Amino acid sequence: MSIEVGNEVSAEASGASAAAPSAGLADAQSAEIAPQRTAPLSVALGVVSGLKNAVIPAAFVMFSSRSGYAIALGLGIAALIMAVSFGIGYIRWRKLTYTVGAEDIRVESGLVSRTARSVPFERIQDVSLEQKLLPRLFGLVSVKFETGAGGGEDLSLSFLTEDEGERLRQVVRERRAAETAQPAVEGASEAVATQEVSQDETAEALFTMGPRRIFIFGLFSFSLAVVAVLFGLTQQFEFFLPFDLWDFEAWEERLIGQSDALSSLGRSAQIVGGVIAVLSLIILGIATGLIRTALREWDFRLEKTPRGFRRRRGLLTKTDVVMPVHRVQGIKIGTRFIRYRFGWHGLKFISLAKDAGASNHDVAPFAQMDEIAPIVEASGFHLPREDAEWHRAAKKYRFDGALIDGGVFLLIAVPVAIFAPPFFVAIPLALAALFAFAALYSWQFKRHALDASQIMSVSGLFSPSSMIANRVKLHSVEISQGPIAQRRGYASLNFGLAGGSFSIPGVPLERAREVRAAVLETIVSRDFSQLESA
């Protein structure tokens, strides 16, 4: 019923411009009668992806067999594995269908036992598209229907053609817009539905990163991950190496021989060699950071659309994600030691459970604060104002932290003093003093503030980070105290976020109770059924 109302309004208000939405809904109705399959090329993509499963067994046979037919035998095993992969992939493709119904999207799959999953349109927040390197070469895309209930509850289809992926996303948006048009005042609601269904999504660019910005970002993203990758490859393919990787006696002989050769060159040559080795390592780390950053962040674009925030990025793996504004529960602004000296920060949105941890939305991974401020405002938050009333952690918490941090190294100093030469004791003693002083000094940089709509926390001495949460969107507030905190009169405030954690440690107990009461009052005073439209 809501679909018919949406179509009638579009036809009357927009005329010919409503043809595309009406066609999209008509396609959905026809798809309800005839279930559809994913793109046939996805079978070929599965075979190409299965090459990695055939390489190792084939290489093992080629290099381990002493038979004259080792190469032919290895190629035969690879062909057999790929043939089996093709057969299984084809059967799975034949058995997987999806149907765009009148009320939901249904996916049926399974070889032996059939599984049917259905997601109502009203639960779908949006549709995100992802293209990795191989699917892009085949013109295919993965389609994920975002429900906001966690990764295990989301529905995904791999792989569809690019046109079909865009069509499905448009159909879902149209259907959701039609379902939200349940008029209390019929004329006004129909006008809203018409606007949501038929209007083109005008995007407002909030943040972009061109090649120059990505290059600077890569310079600050020093990484030696390639060393770890090479080490992992040597473990997987050590049978290709002309020596035994784990023969420590052979390594010792090689190192001794190298040290003798270096000592014969003289001190100047040794220093030059050491400098070259360090510079090579630095160049390798910079190059790795540049490559990783370019692959992940290429053509980074953050836009504000009527559906929410749209982020697109990626060179080999291209992602297109839309997050509605109402799903943003909090924001996190972070930086690193060197980046902070040049004014660079990163902004993340914290949303629902599936976005926890590393999957949180990077909406401005490398930006100045004057670029971050408009994004924060567009998300319904605001940066701390000058008149914010900041509160520091309890002074007892400051002293206890210094005692604990320094005490660990004092305990280490005891066995060092017993078993090591006397001058080695100075190392843990110096570290104990350093960590204790850092805990005492950094206390003044750990602050929190509460205003009418937000709870804010700032911490960090050399690389400060800020956490801001919307009081209405918090799920819970908890006061926790360990054995020491109970006796010393302070506590930790733990705020419930579906997509992450937010904790403020060392808050004086009276202040913690005051903050909890204020936040709970805000939570219970809001009708959460109206949160999405707010």
- Major beta-sheet overview: 7 strands, antiparallel
CA-based gyration radius: 30 Å
- Estimate the strand proportion: 15-25%
Structural class: alpha+beta
Overall residue-averaged pLDDT value: 78
> Going across the major beta sheet, what is the strand order?
6-5-4-10-9-8-7
Say how many strands there are. Answer: 20
Helix count? 18
Low-confidence stretches at least 5 residues in length (pLDDT < 50)? Answer: 1-32, 182-200, 353-359
Q: Name the shape in a single word.
A: globular
| Helicity range | 40-55%
Distance between the termini: 26 Å
Written account of the structure:
By secondary structure, the protein is of the alpha+beta class. The protein contains 18 helices and 20 strands. It has helices at residues 2-14, 19-33, 41-49, 51-64, 70-95, 133-138, 162-179, 186-198, 211-219, 225-236, 248-265, 267-297, 337-341, 369-378, 395-419, 426-442, 483-488, 509-524, and strands at residues 97-100, 104-109, 115-120, 126-131, 140-146, 155-161, 204-209, 300-305, 308-313, 318-323, 330-334, 345-350, 361-367, 390-392, 447-450, 454-459, 465-470, 477-480, 490-497, 500-508. The protein has a 7-stranded antiparallel sheet with strand order 6-5-4-10-9-8-7, sandwiched between helices. A 7-stranded antiparallel sheet has the order 13-12-11-17-16-15-14. The protein has a 3-stranded antiparallel sheet with strand order 1-2-3. The longest helix is centred in the middle third of the chain and has 31 residues, at 267-297. The two termini are 26 Å apart.
